[in-house]
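User: Second chain of the day. Same drill as before.
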Amino acid sequence: MGERLALGVVVSAVALGVLGDYLFEGQAIGVNAGVFAVAFVAALAILLRVGRVPLHQGRRAMVAPLVLFAALLAWHDSPLLLATNLLAVAGAVALCALRRTKPSLVDAQVTDYVVGAAAAGASAFAGAIDLLEKEVPWERIGRQVRGRQGAAVARGLAIGLPLLALFGGLFVAADAVFRSLLFESVADLRRLWLHLLIAGAIAWLSCGLLRDLLATRDEQRLVAAELVGVRKRRFALSGQTEVALALAIVNVVFAAFVVVQIRYLFGGRSLVESRLHLTYAQYARHGFFELLAVSLLVLPLLFGAHALLRHRSPFSLRLVHALSALLIALSLVVMASALQRLRLYQREYGLTELRLYATGLIIWLGCVFVWLGVTVVRSRPRLFVTGALVSGFVATLALNMANPDALIARTNLDRPRVDAAYLGKLSDDAVPVLLARLQSLPARLRVPLARELLRRSDDPQGLLGWNASRSRAHGLLRKEHSALVQLASGRNALPSS
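Assistant: Same format as last time:
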């Protein structure tokens, strides 16, 4: 990276830190996330132009999903949906972090994404040190200021101040005595300290991430030789028999499990209760996360098998392809078993955020496995990662459109047994549904729900913290405040059904 571009990264990072402090300090996540994403993309675009860095390797592809999912943070209020959107934002950054994929993203392999994500993550936290130490022309700046000693002081301040803010913030959060002594000694600077901490942290992360995203070659990145070397190595087995035998054994285990599932889980309530002396819900309650882990582990297993046999005989390739296809089919049955367990448990105990998102994860994994069979098993591995990432974006967008907390409220309110305390603690996404159904509920549910709704904050958060769901919920709560007060006190309540 040239000196001019390195200085541009530092200046851009400082500007993003100041902007981030203004947008996020004291604010909830909302419009500010989208504004910061646009500013980050603009800074990256300017630096790409200044450094004459080509716009390939995923940089163009990053912009749309990054801005879209950052903007969607201002739509709904569900914490789990917030986390899902943030994961999509991270996936978009991983697109930009790809290297050696040429103009087409379909050439990217799994190792490209692994190396890109690892290098981007490491650079976000430590890349600023490397940039400030090796690439910023401190000597020339120092000569213009006050010789070599001035350059050394400038380097020390540039590296030390963000670390001071980072560790100082951690000590403040960890020890109440330290916090009180610090704030008593600098009482007038308490707000300034917080602003410096937030701005310094955002500037530090932005500096490292921008440095990584602007690097045109792997050797220019913080994590390079070790991770890139993994992609270049070739591990060979003594023969194709080991791979085929390992897959065959796994298939036998999966097949045995599938037979049990077909007999018991899919066989009906009476068989389970008569043979196992358990209720259907008790049987279905356990095993979901174990099955999810099994499904996840199949992916590296199949990738490893095909990577090891890349240059083997046509017969061994056909054998491994057949065993892989069988294992994918059995894995889909295992996922169906996990979904069935979740459905039975949900039918017995209701829908929750964790159960809903777990269902979405299993369905997405099913799509990934089908795509795995279409690509990797048919010797087209370069298409797999792109398709899996796009399907993840589509799934995240579908979750935003479905509005999970509102769906949970509608579903659970139609059940004979309703957990009013849980529904009352859902995010503001559920408020319109709860208010619309409140009058039709029996008093034993209506009163606690009304009380929970009255406890919600009506703080509009201002323009920067604006969120469509929160804004709508607060407007409805203000409009229905008098009615909610009456319902919460039990007055004018409808007879319990």
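The two ends are 72 Å apart (CA to CA).

User: Great, on to the next one.
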